[in-house]
Specification:
The chain is mostly helical. It has two helices and no strands.
């Protein structure tokens, strides 16, 4: 065996370690560790807030815009239905005009529902 690579015997330190000094070192290390951990958690929460707030704001804006469009469509549809009923009343009795208006409204509802719930178009793959 090469003497330069030969293992050296481990020598213990002859000095005794004071238990109170070790306890204060451990308490200091533990305090620093907890302080660093709380700082990391605080910074991660700030980062999460910085990412989450714009996303939630955008979602709320889109939801409000969708509700405005929905209510405008409902009000516009109601006005068109009332106009249809008043137009039909020129030639028919009121109950007949309302019946035809109701059938038109239900038919429009079914058309819109079928358009919304239609399954997405299947993408065709070319096999060579």
């Amino acid at each position: 065996m090469d003497p330069a690579v030969a293992p050296r015997p481990h020598q213990r330190n002859a000095q005794t370690v004071d238990d109170s000094g070790t306890a204060t070192e451990w308490s200091t290390l533990l305090g620093r560790m907890l302080e660093d951990l709380s700082r990391i958690i605080r910074l991660e929460l700030q980062l999460l807030e910085a990412r989450l707030v714009p996303s939630l704001t955008g979602m709320a804006d889109r939801a409000i815009a969708a509700l405005v469009i929905l209510f405008a469509g409902v009000i516009g549809g109601s006005c068109l239905l009332a106009a249809l009923i008043l137009l039909l009343h020129e030639w028919m009795k009121w109950w007949q005009a309302f019946a035809i208006g109701g059938v038109v409204a239900i038919a429009c509802g079914f058309v819109v529902y079928s358009v919304i719930k239609r399954p997405p178009a299947a993408t065709e793959t070319l096999t060579v």
